[in-house]
UniProtKB/TrEMBL annotation:
InterPro entries: HD_domain, HDIG_dom. Pfam families: HD (PF01966). SUPFAM superfamilies: HD-domain/PDEase-like (SSF109604). The lineage of its organism: Bacteria, Bacillati, Bacillota, Negativicutes, Selenomonadales. This is HDIG domain-containing protein. Residues 46-164 form the HD domain. Coiled coil: none annotated.
Length: 167
């Protein structure tokens, strides 16, 4: 829970600076930039931090991996949460509901509670958006970034999860 409190304070003060903006533009094609900038500012900042962390983790890797794919997936891993779908306080509510009422919150999401539906389904939503613009490899990583780890997971997916968890 302490990490969630830190996340909240980071989110309240989140800003995308010119260095961050240049990083996004250098790593994402135009169609993907449109998806990235359709996210809430808080999610943009989170995704940028995840990408910076992923780059650091990739630099320490001895195994072969597709660094460019990892950075694109890190920047795009939350595109299923668009501005207006789940703002900062909506995410706080979703986290609390999920923590205190895990089964009920899943049922409410299935019954049409938009906030909880987006919270739970944003990986699949984001993957579909990425598939529409031809980013199939990125979509595969985004779709599974909150799924339980499996022996067949790629190195890129493992690092994406680690970077997301750290942020």
């Amino acid at each position: 829970m302490l990490q969630r409190i830190r996340q909240f304070f980071r989110a309240v003060t989140a800003r995308v600076n010119t260095r961050d903006d240049a990083f996004v533009r250098a790593h994402l094609p135009a169609a993907a930039q449109s998806l990235f900038y359709a996210m809430h500012r808080v999610d943009q900042c989170h995704a940028i931090r995840v990408a910076y962390t992923a780059a650091q983790l990739a630099a320490r890797e001895r195994a072969a991996l597709d660094r460019a794919l990892l950075l694109r997936a890190a920047l795009l891993h939350d595109v299923g949460r668009r501005k207006g779908d789940l703002d900062l306080f909506g995410k706080v509510a979703a986290v609390l509901l999920t923590h205190f009422f895990p089964r009920r919150s899943r049922a409410w999401a299935a019954a049409g509670c938009r906030l909880l539906f987006v919270y739970y389904e944003h990986p699949a939503i984001g993957a579909r958006l990425l598939e529409r613009i031809g980013m199939i490899q990125e979509a595969a990583l985004v779709r599974r970034h909150h799924a339980a780890p499996a022996a067949t997971d790629s190195r890129e997916l493992c690092l994406l999860r680690a970077a997301d968890e750290a942020n």
